[in-house]
Amino acid sequence: MYQIIKNYRNNDELRKSFNELAGKTFGLNFEDWYQNGFWGENYIPYSIVEDGKVISNVSVNKTDMLLDGEVKHFLQLGTVMTDKTYRNQGLSREIMEEIEKDYKDKVDGIYLFASDSVLTFYPKFGFEKSVEYIYSKPVSISGKCQLEQVIMDNPIAWKQLEHVMNNNVYHGKFDMVNNNELVMFYVTKFMQECVYYHSQTGTYVIAEIEGEDAFIHNVFSEKLEELDEVIALLGADVKNVTLGFVPREANEYNRIEYHEEDCTFFIKGEAMQVVLNEKLRIPSLSHA
Question: 20 to 30 Å CA-CA from 49: which of 1, 69, 76, 148?
């Protein structure tokens, strides 16, 4: 007999089983994120468990967003997975119904990113397909790069970045707030070599820089409030900047629809309609 168990991150046996299923399904393991202290209360697995084994899961990610100066409470659904032996038995539907029961009328919107193989599943729960956008522009910068690369493989580096995140004065038009742990998931795992620091202004730039192109995932600064000031730190070698978030000065950027392969953006809720209508995008380091 199985049951739905929620928010069990401190249960060693269930967390191990969850990681095993995530490994088989996505090649992911969340154990280092947990051991490093970054798996907090914002990431909540909803799992169907049979005989102590996680056989199906949908995780809830609490992603508060600063929208037009007001914090909106969103949920992102992710880590949707079912063990091959138990597929096509309606387990994901049961979990979705449980999440709906727990959060109905308690959040401003819900969103998720689905693979193309399940596009007919989520509309059954009131979700609708949406569109993401991406912002970019050519830049002309003088001088050398003023940023120092920081390898994010140790607690000292993590603590310093979190300090600046907690004292951040730069904000885009649609930023995730109150969720350092999701950003740290990226920079302590897949993006350890994508973090740059400017000590004079206490500014961190999380970016992928290849030749003349810089993809800036996020900016955290203790002093710089204007994005152009941050971009100037990249140096003259960078000629094109693409953003993983929406800048305040969105009208100064080229905006195009963004389509990730085998990934469809679904939304639900009135506030998410504002995101669609204002042509915003979920920050790239807020995807889970």
Answer: 76
